[in-house]
Design a protein that fits this description.
Chain lengths: 232, 293
């Protein structure tokens, strides 16, 4: 379980996220919604430790990980798929997975196979330079790379932004398959309501770096509820 | 025959440039650190050979011992520099340049205090004395040894970067530090190991330079500019480019020297490199990607 308590962070003299409290329960999908500039990515970077906190704490399974470096948080079970289909562009797709799997020995190789089972199209592209893959292929590779760490919590930052429609459904299907097992929690950040509100157990709407609204996902009124909150 | 002699002279000079630039292709090319003390790590490697020979006596054994020891000494100096100063200055290239230049001056003075200001000699082993006759052309064994050493270093570095977990980690951190951290890779540890290897290669280059003449505290300053030139002309972060650029610059220098003087040849090489970088600022070898990272 991930708990954010009064998380405050920003860049330079500007505070972008103000006192955010959020809980991501085990085995559930939690969504954070917000317009461009609401502070969603900044919040996720703080969760990973890529941005230091000005106040508050990040707790993972009850342990305070606020002072831990990002790679140590990953070792504790958080995996991150950043915005923008990021890959190690000059490495091959295979090396993008290997570079993570190297640290986990046999388990890393097994998890690489499992991740490729989730995105079988990647198997034919393993020898190709990652920077030359399409946006959709790079995003599938990014999710596969995150899964190789064997996470208990998968943090996804707008995973379908700028992706061609046929690949969007593949990525959403993969997220659904991952959460259906109940072993993996997902923290999903989105601008668009559709999938996030429909599949999330809970959602929060972020406005100007503050949680402006919280709601239950899945129900008939959830989308209207979220849309109303986003319009505020 | 003259052409072949110049070709060999160029390749030989290229191999020296390559040894000097190879470590820099990691610390500057891959990590973006302008380390002006890189030449002093070469100097430290050269003095390591001098000290080892003083202890061991036998020139052959001492050379073979000095190569790995020079690597370790250069590497440890680099590690110390990275851990104490440079890691605070990533993304501040001007500060790094000034600080490492200061460190270079300090290291030169330390060498003067310890070994004295005059140059010292390191004896070449008997099996490297004389020349190999090929088709009436005498090829000095020391030059052939340095050529072979440069080739071994290039292959070892290329294999290490391409086919080992450490190499993959280095390339991943270089390309996207945040993504590497968010993928469970410690960028701090990787930085230190990368700097150790890059500086260690400078140490090996220094040992090799003892075969070409006497050594002194300012040995590194003779090579540092050329080494940066090779890495920039080759294409930042590309070992292949470094190899091609070192060879090309060595050949150009040798052929210009054949028809002019050494200093005019140097000027012509600089002019050629500047003109080349105007046409191709990214250097000889660059990598295409569709993504931002």
């Amino acid at each position: 379980m991930l708990e954010l308590s009064g998380v405050t962070t920003g860049y330079g003299r500007t505070t972008v996220v103000h006192g955010v409290d959020l809980t991501v329960p085990d085995g559930a999908l939690t969504a954070v919604l917000g317009h461009n500039g609401a502070g969603k990515t900044t919040l996720l970077r703080a969760v990973l430790g890529l941005l230091p906190l000005r106040a508050g704490a990040v707790l993972l399974n009850g342990a305070d990980v606020t002072a831990l470096a990002p790679h140590k948080r990953v070792r504790r079970g958080i995996a991150y798929v950043p915005q923008g289909q990021q890959s190690f562009g000059q490495l091959s797709a295979r090396e993008n997975l290997q570079v993570v799997a190297d640290a986990y020995g046999r388990a890393g190789r097994r998890r690489t196979d499992e991740a490729l089972d989730l995105f079988p199209a990647l198997r034919d592209l393993l020898g190709r330079q990652a920077g030359l893959l399409s946006g959709g292929q790079r995003q599938q590779l990014a999710i596969a790379r995150a899964l190789v760490t064997g996470p208990r919590l998968l943090v996804l930052d707008e995973p379908v932004e700028g992706i061609q429609p046929n690949v969007v459904s593949e990525i959403y299907d993969a997220i659904s398959a991952l959460t259906s097992s109940g072993d993996l929690s997902v923290l999903l950040v989105e601008q668009h309501l559709g999938y996030a509100v429909e599949h999330a157990a809970e959602f929060a709407v972020l406005t100007s770096g503050r949680i402006a609204h919280r709601g239950q996902g899945g129900g008939p009124s959830a989308a209207a509820d979220a849309r109303k909150a986003l319009a505020l | 025959m003259d052409i072949i002699a110049q070709l060999f002279a160029g390749l030989s000079l290229g191999s020296v440039l390559l040894l000097a630039a190879l470590g820099l292709s990691l610390t500057f090319g891959q990590m973006g650190v302008i380390n002006m003390a890189h030449g002093e790590f070469m100097m430290a490697g050269a003095y390591t050979a001098f000290v080892v020979q003083g202890v061991v006596g036998d020139a052959g054994v001492s050379l073979l011992l000095a190569l790995p020891l020079g690597f370790v000494v250069g590497g440890l100096l680099g590690l110390l520099l990275e851990a104490t100063l440079i890691h605070r200055m990533y993304r501040r290239p001007l500060d790094t340049l000034l600080v490492t230049w200061g460190v270079a001056l300090v290291l030169q003075q330390v060498a003067r205090d310890v070994f004295g200001a005059p140059n010292v000699d390191v004896r070449a082993p008997a099996w490297l004395s004389g020349a190999v006759e090929i088709g009436g052309l005498a090829l000095p064994r020391t030059r052939l040894f340095i050529l072979a050493l440069a080739a071994v270093c290039v292959v070892a570095l290329a294999l290490a970067l391409r086919a080992t977990p450490l190499g993959r980690r280095i390339r991943a951190v270089v390309q996207n530090r945040d993504l590497a951290e968010a993928s469970g890779i410690s960028s701090r540890t990787t930085d230190r190991v990368t700097f150790f290897i890059g500086s260690g290669l400078a140490g090996i280059a220094g040992v090799a330079l003892t075969l070409l003449g006497s050594i002194g505290p300012t040995l590194g300053t003779n090579y540092i500019v050329d080494a940066f030139l090779v890495v920039v002309a080759g294409g930042i972060g590309q070992v292949k480019g470094t190899v091609i650029a070192a060879t090309a610059l060595g050949l150009m220098q040798a052929f210009f020297e054949y028809s002019t003087t050494a200093s005019v040849a140097k000027v012509l090489v600089f002019v050629a490199v500047v003109a080349f970088l105007q046409l191709r600022p990214q250097g000889l070898v660059s990598v295409r990607t569709r993504s931002l990272a």
